[in-house]
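Study the following:
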Amino acid sequence: MAKLKINPIAEPNKIINYWKRERLVVFYIVVFGIVFNSATVLGPIYQGKLIDAIAKENSLNAVLKVALTFIAFITMIQVMRYFKRFYIRRFANSTSATMRLMIYNNIMSKTISELDNENMGNLMTRAISDVELCVEGMRKFTTEIFDTGVLMLSYIVSMLFYDVKLTLLACIFIPVAMIIAEKLKGVIYKYSIDFRSKSSEVAEFTYESIDNAMLYRVNGLEGKNRISYEAHLKDLQTKAIKANILENSMQPIYNVIAMLGVVMVIYIGGSKVISGAFTIGAFSTYITMFTALAVKASKAAKLFNSVQKSQVSWQRIKPYLTEYQSKDTQVNLPVEGSALSVSNLQFIYPGTSTAIIDNISFEANKGEIIGITGPIACGKTTLGISLLGLYPYLGSIKIHNKELCQYTEYERSKMISYLGHNPQLLSDTIFSNITLGSSKDISEVLSDVCFEKDMKAMPQGQDTLVGNSGISLSGGQQARIALARTLLNKSKIIILDDPFSAVDMKTEEAIINNLKLNYKDSVIILISHRLSIFSRVDQIILMKEDKAVEYGTHEELLKNSTLYATIYSLQQGQEEESNEKQLS
């Protein structure tokens, strides 16, 4: 796969540095921008000369000579314009790619705690539309420095050459249009902030609606949700109108104000033609240049407003513009000591004050399966998450005598594999869902999760597409594909949170046998509310609602724990009843 090369940028939160980074491209923009806009005045000048040559009834050769010169200058001007636009677009595309990549890297490098506090719609809006608006403002600014600034200067100098007094009188209204635009920038800035904030809110609402579409449909909430969504869209529309109306609707007004001087041009310029001070060609040249100057002035006024609007997007994305720091990808794992040692572990989710788990201690050596069970909401899943090292924890979690938090993020990813409640399948092939980009052979791990028969029934085999979120697979197939992905690397620590909830008991028992047989170098943490296979695990952690914990083997807990014996007895009764129904 081709890798996008992004040149490093110093202090990416300073907007000037994006032009500095593209020095060569900016140099070409400056050269072609100055040449194009300086030479543009030659168009109306030679247009006037051509009119005079025809009006004076010069020879055909003389008229053709002027006409060819006029055409040559127009061609040269358009060639310069092409290169100027090419390099400005190249600057904009490169800057957009740079900003998007930095925002992506910033988001992906955040801790889980930080991501938990982020608004998904807000992130998407910043990474896509805010970058687009910001870069568009930068592009317009870069363009108009030349297409407006240099060009206006060229026109004014040329017009002064024709008549100083007329030029000063005709241009007196142009600063008025610019002053009005400058006065409006504060209002536009405020409305733009409101619009961008509402855009993020609508994006988040859209994301949640899509993610929970089935929930709304099953519970008959689609109508209510649609009404709420329409209200959000109406509010967004109102804010969009306010944000854009002053910027876009004022353009004709700026144009009219700037063009008021045309009265002077026609009156005084016409008088000069009558008196012979101006030729018809000179008058045509002058009025053409003034008209172009007035139009450019009105666009310059609009540019102030556009840049002000893009400033809002810049302020929104600036905190996310950080240069990517490559992470250490070296793995140096110790091999001595217990594979896993947990001592007095306490876990509190960031932003809360209540401990979910408290004072848990156990040890596990490679080849062992540690079962974790307990009532609903007792902290089973939280214990599994805490062993990943993604969140801060109190107490001690050691892998081979080294504290978990002392390993790098990359080292932890190579030591620990995790399967949560959600299979989290990609809209890709079975092979890609298991390997996640590697080229490893998956036949062994498919056997471990009892997927061979399923695979034989699929004409495309490992290349079978699973569909969006695994929609083309059954629940049990989804669960086993996700389990195969977790087992593929045979990590030192394998954490499985309720991996058999969608699997029948016969398959569950076969997979447990495979885990005990083929993963003797791993510690497997098996979180489950089903105790049917806990007689096969080496140690059990029974968590209670009051944060108390009991430890022991299956037989020990049956004998010593009333809670465990009660849960096991109830489940056994349910299983026997289910079997009887199937037989009858």
About this structure: The mean pLDDT is 84. The domain at 16-320 is CATH 1.20.1560.10 (ABC transporter transmembrane region fold). Residues 199 and 236 are 7 Å apart (CA to CA).
